[in-house]
Fold this sequence. Notes:
Blueprint: E1 32-34, H1 36-41, E2 46-54, E3 64-69, H2 71-80, H3 93-102, H4 120-132, E4 140-144, H5 150-160, E5 170-176, H6 179-195, H7 201-205, E6 223-226, H8 229-241, E7 244-250, H9 253-263, E8 268-274, H10 283-293, E9 294-305, H11 315-321, H12 325-329, E10 334-342, E11 348-355
Parallel strand pairs: 4-5, 4-8, 5-7, 8-9
Antiparallel strand pairs: 1-7, 2-3, 2-6, 9-11, 10-11
Amino acid sequence: xxxxxxxxxxxxxxxxxxxxxxxxxxxxxxxxxxxxxxxxxxxxxxxxxxxxxxxxxxxxxxxxxxxxxxxxxxxxxxxxxxxxxxxxxxxxxxxxxxxxxxxxxxxxxxxxxxxxxxxxxxxxxxxxxxxxxxxxxxxxxxxxxxxxxxxxxxxxxxxxxxxxxxxxxxxxxxxxxxxxxxxxxxxxxxxxxxxxxxxxxxxxxxxxxxxxxxxxxxxxxxxxxxxxxxxxxxxxxxxxxxxxxxxxxxxxxxxxxxxxxxxxxxxxxxxxxxxxxxxxxxxxxxxxxxxxxxxxxxxxxxxxxxxxxxxxxxxxxxxxxxxxxxxxxxxxxxxxxxxxxxxxxxxxxxxxxxxxx
Length: 357
């Protein structure tokens, strides 16, 4: 049985294990900002993808299907790059990622925070965002603990399906504890969202790579996408054309908070996080970060399980932490309003955070 007992299965052969007991002293990952060009250079020449159907809740709307990179394909990339070589004298983050792909634990505190899998609450966020019919263009958007980045991928899908604009820049910031997750899964999923959208149609019709066979732009089908230099250049060009800035950062929440304070980085208009309240000892750091990044009129949404079995966290613990003495003293207090709830099976909620003055 997995620790959470609720993951969306990406490979029927996965063997879920109980979480590794954390060491007495956990050295948290420091803040790191990952350059988009370097992330693109680290991609393999070909990625495999499969459809991810998502139910939308708004009446009259068709459900949506997004494409996501296959986990087995990420594993193959790591092995082909030599990260599975047991003779290596020094483990790397990619070597650690391969270990979780081979026998994925849902959580190893301070080492791996579950970002290689797609969890239900991220799909809940997509359904809820769709009901709001928000205009994302020109906004500053942050997804904390993004993992596979499905809510942000949905937002980018909407942007790529709209008209290109020369107006205000849309800034989408994706943060995850593990840099390898951003490299192996998050960015490939974003590229797939672009490839399956009208934004890529100009590239497909330009015959820029006459010797390369590309799959149909059909997110409902599985396939393989060649990541040629020309395609990656077209992706970057589309980001510019649509006025989209992507930022990727890794590390612990406290280190991101400290970075934002030191750089006086402005706040965000839309702040999203899902499946991040599972550990009670990390709630204060999460709440402090959510408070720091939320602008005066920001929408701050937290999607979570009512209870995370075997860990101790959940919606009640998070709501209580928002009004805890330490949080009040830090000036980060808030209240959680439930805007959506699922009561069948393992309960799930989406909370909107209202910060106190």
